[in-house]
Design goal:
- With 389 residues, the protein is mainly beta.
- The chain folds into 2 domains: 64 residues, no CATH class; 310 residues, Beta-galactosidase, Chain A, domain 5 (Distorted Sandwich), CATH 2.70.98.
- The protein is 8% helix and 40% strand.
- It has 3 helices and 23 strands.
- The strands form 4 sheets. Strands 11-12-13-14-23-20-19-16-17 form a 9-stranded antiparallel sheet, covered by helices on one side. Strands 5-6-7-8-9 form a 5-stranded antiparallel sheet, with no helix packed on it. It has a 5-stranded antiparallel sheet with strand order 10-15-22-21-18, with no helix packed on it.
- A hairpin with a 5-residue loop joins strand 6 and strand 7.
């Protein structure tokens, strides 16, 4: 009788519980899915927090068995968790006074229900790192901790590449073939990560090698993105990088406006890459619509350090924008965006193009209403040395 009951329980378990072994080994988590379905997994992705019925992390267990230690650093330092097998993880840039800049890569499900693999900004920390505090999702994507609370800076990236002949056929990161990732360099002062991908485009094949460069204490990272035609025929493509970043607080665009070196953008409009090398979004409140609220005054920025985009704009949606003279205010509740586009770009076989972007947080502590972009510390020779890895 006992054996029969045991067999029945085993059958019931496998009928209702699926096992998702991500190979991150963060812990053991039991998730409630739709209907009478459950999932047993070793990690929790962004958006799955409310599904957790029960869980335990191995780091928490080890921490309970080890003596408590307080860490104080006399200088800024970097801490890294990276999984080469699927190109995911995060980098923590920790300042001596307890402030922190966090950047997560490929720790989220995209609109296709897939998890990208590689150096794509997005997702949150492992579930256990939230501790017993409320999960606000402000510490996701790229986020800043000021010693008291987290502020959201960049969300899951809206990035893609498409054949120039059919620009609407955008291939997003989870659709790129993942060739692998590696830690090129990792020490408390500098971290360099790499991921490689391939995409069939316009009758040929493009290989995309990506590098993320972090330096301790710097409020940004540098993304090197080399597109290389590894096929036998010429091909043309369009590359886009953008985000509805939800600056200040996760889940809302309220208060977000655009900015560049000498002005603010309260309305949709084009950014002129010939007049500026950077732009960003700023949680200040849009005065053109009388927007009121307790805005955080946090700002992000993205700077193009090599080939400038052919198109850059602020809008309430991707793929379209009104002329600034049309006075269409940035007023979407959750979709005020910044978007950059390169192309159409034609590459011959074995020809490549390099895009270098600095992505991070601007300083808003000065008396000026405009944020201040940090100076980017990377040289041409440093870029060339990184690209040979």
């Amino acid at each position: 009788m006992a054996a029969g009951v045991g067999t029945l329980l085993i059958v019931l378990f496998f009928a209702t519980v699926s096992i998702n072994y991500v190979r991150h080994c963060e812990g053991v988590y039991f998730l409630k899915l739709a209907g009478f379905k459950f999932e047993l997994t070793d990690d929790v992705m962004l958006g799955e927090e409310d599904k957790v019925v029960w869980g335990i992390s191995w780091k928490s267990v080890l921490g309970a068995l080890s003596p408590k230690r307080a860490y104080a650093y006399g200088e800024p330092r970097l801490k890294l968790e990276w999984f080469e097998s699927d190109g995911s993880g995060y980098v923590r840039n920790i300042y001596p006074d307890g402030r922190e800049l966090l950047t997560c890569f490929s720790r989220y499900y995209d609109s296709l229900g897939k998890v990208p693999m590689g150096l794509f900004v997005g997702g949150g920390l492992p579930y256990h790192t939230h501790g017993d505090g409320e999960v606000t999702a402000n510490d996701t994507g790229m986020a800043y901790y000021d010693g008291h609370r987290w502020y959201h800076l960049w969300c899951n990236v809206n990035e893609g590449i498409s054949p120039a002949s059919t620009s609407a056929n955008m291939l997003t990161p989870s659709q790129w073939e993942f060739l692998g990732s590696k830690v090129v360099e990792a020490n408390p002062k500098r971290v360099v990560l790499k991921s490689s991908h391939r995409v069939p485009l316009d009758g040929t094949t493009m290989q995309i090698d990506r590098y993320a460069v972090f330096k301790a204490g710097e409020p940004y990272f540098v993304l090197l993105n080399r597109v290389w035609n590894v096929g036998a025929t010429a091909g043309a493509y369009i590359y886009t990088y953008g985000d509805e970043p939800w600056v200040g607080n996760f889940g809302t665009s309220g208060g977000n406006i655009g900015w560049q070196k000498d002005r603010l953008f309260n309305y949709e409009g084009e950014i002129d890459p010939r007049k500026t090398s950077f732009a960003g979004m700023y949680d200040l409140g849009n005065r053109s619509i009388g927007e009121q609220g307790d805005f955080t005054r946090k700002a992000n920025f993205i700077e193009w350090l090599a080939e400038p985009p052919d198109l850059a704009y602020f809008s309430n949606d991707f793929g379209r924008f009104a002329r600034e003279s049309d006075r269409a205010p940035l007023n979407s509740k959750n979709n005020r965006v910044i978007s950059l586009q390169w192309g159409a770009k034609n590459l011959q076989p074995n020809q490549s193009a390099l895009y270098v972007l600095a992505i991070g947080m601007a300083d808003t502590t000065s008396a000026s209403e405009l944020p201040v972009k940090p100076k980017i510390d990377i040289s041409y020779q440093e870029v060339q040395d990184i690209l040979i890895n």
